[in-house]
């Protein structure tokens, strides 16, 4: 414990209270993590030979992603899809369909490996992921979400160096803020997330990821209450949806109902991470109290 510094790990100031555009009261960052089979091979590459385990991830390209794309088309919503490089290489048609529908493509590692501090794979995961998105889709992503919900100083310095605009990984606020690196320099914009909107917690169970399943009433109670109160606070809701979860019939129905509830407010800005981050950057540029980036 003596090696733990007497500073908060995150030294960024509290999030500034910038208004949302067009008199919107709050924002909903509609974010989907397309791990596909790499969610399972990241745990153990040998899982590639465990075909039923692979089939959990394989559901995304076969059913989950097409269903979610259809839903977003029907509701006229644009989302951000954080895709692993492996998923782009293995399922190019799926990735192209996402792009064709006009959604944002974000970086989600290559093999969905945990970016643990000091891990030599961090650089490789970053650059192989960038290469797959560029080569297969012609995309240079501006947004990043850390696989398995972890990050470290080396990675956030790398995000800045590689020209990312935002990350969506931290759990410590209800509004966007600017990361401050350990050196004191400005980092990328953070669009914080909450476990309340990680569908994996409620809707997927497997012997390598054992969890109870939650019915519609429970999930909608959590999601709608979070939305209602976050809207009152003028905050940001960030989803962590997985097509191998929310693309399943019962989960899909829950997601559709939740999005209808959000749309019915008519003052919740449902959009991509890039739009939210660009709006933050515009507000920041006009704010004399903010340090230059
Ligand atoms: Zn993931």
Automatic annotation (TrEMBL):
Highest taxon in the source lineage: Bacteria
Domain NodB homology: 50-271
InterPro entries: Glyco_hydro/deAcase_b/a-brl (IPR011330), NODB_dom (IPR002509), PgdA-like (IPR037950)
Pfam families (UniProt xref): Polysacc_deac_1
Transmembrane intervals: none
Protein name: Polysaccharide deacetylase
Species of the source: Robbsia betulipollinis
